[in-house]
Structure formats: C-alpha cells, structure tokens
Design brief:
The protein is an alpha+beta fold. The chain is built from 6 helices and 8 strands.
Length: 146
C-alpha cells in the first residue's frame, strides 16, 4: 500500500524482530492516518535531500517498542517518526544540518550515534527540536553547527 508517491506502508512497518518473534506490527486505523501524514511530510524531506531515504525504523507496536527499550511516549508508537539514512545525499550529520537549515516544520530531528537520523513530525505545534544522542548523552544539535 502506497502512503505517498515515494513511501509505502511496508517500509514503515517492516521489522525483522517482529518477524522472528511472531509479533504483529500492524498499525490501527488511527496510526495508519498518522503514517500517511508522516509519509507526506517525508516527501518534503526527500525533495530537500534530492535523494532516496532508506528507512530503518518507522512504526513500532508497543510490544516492539518495549523490546527495543524505548519509551511509550515515542513518536514511533504513534506512527509519527522514522529513523533513516540517505547515503546518496551524505552523512547523517549533513542530513540533520540540511533539515535544521530548511523550512521543514519537524517536531524532532536527532543525530543518533552519528549513524542515522531520527525524524518526527507533530500535527500541531512542532517543537523544531534538534538534538544529538551518543555515548556522551543528549545535547542540542546547534552546538555542532559551524
């Protein structure tokens, strides 16, 4: 099922962990609506990057999310976040910088362990929060922009 021109439901719900453990990672109708919203917002990011995005994590059922040690408040559980890379564009840090410097109304963009980008959207009042998470903890991304 296509959620937008360049994103499908399967890339947001695929999980090797769920497949191995026999867990259902099917979104509810409400979450499916959120995933459609997310996919439309990601179309803007794809235009910005001018390259495909490789999604490693999208929607997570509460079971999967708990297994990964993430909080119940995670935007992944709501169908409003993805983790991705875009090697054809550049490094995860370059991606975060491009998003921060754009007019894209994200909720959170996080450079995680300098290996991938976490990006979430809010339907109302996006925080425009840019962070880094790594072995040293959590800090604002702005600290790295030169």
């Amino acid at each position: 099922m296509k959620l937008s021109p360049n994103f499908s439901l399967s890339e947001f719900t695929a999980s090797q962990i769920c497949e191995r453990k026999g867990w259902d990672n099917t979104p509810s109708p409400e979450i499916l609506n959120n995933l459609k919203f997310l996919a439309e917002k990601l179309e803007d990011v794809r235009v910005l990057l001018r390259n495909p995005m490789l999604v490693s994590s999208g929607y997570r059922s509460r079971t999967l999310n708990a297994h990964l040690g993430s909080r119940d408040t995670s935007s992944h559980v709501k169908g409003l976040a993805v983790d991705f890379i875009s090697p054809s564009f550049g490094s995860p840090e370059a991606i975060v910088k491009a998003i921060v410097e754009s007019d894209i109304q994200y909720d959170q963009v996080i450079l995680e362990f300098n290996r991938w980008v976490h990006l979430s959207f809010a339907k109302e009042n996006p925080r425009l929060q840019a962070l880094i998470i790594d072995k040293d903890g959590v800090r604002p991304f702005e600290d790295t922009i030169t």
